[in-house]
Amino acid sequence: METLKIFGQRLRTLREEKHLRQADMAEALQITLVHYQRMEYGKVNIPSLTLCCLADYFGVTTDYLLGRSEQRS
């Protein structure tokens, strides 16, 4: 699914902009490193609450994360 791929790419870009490791994000979300990696690779759906938490954490909209908008806020 294209949405998952876009989500993963944007998630990775936002993480790298903050100079965070995948392990840092996994710990913050209280998930395994492998599960977080699968999110970035666009291989797994995420719960809506996780999506909202990520949007708040990075200061972007959920629509931006999902590729529905090019505007971050």
From TrEMBL:
Pfam families listed in its UniProt record: HTH_31
Residue spans crossing the bilayer: none
Annotated HTH cro/C1-type domain residues: 11-65
CDD domains hit by this protein: HTH_XRE
Domain of life the protein comes from: Bacteria
Signal peptide: none
Key words of the record: DNA-binding
Cytoplasm found in the keyword field: no
Protein name: Helix-turn-helix transcriptional regulator
InterPro entries referenced in this protein's UniProt entry, alphabetically: Cro/C1-type_HTH (IPR001387), Lambda_DNA-bd_dom_sf (IPR010982)
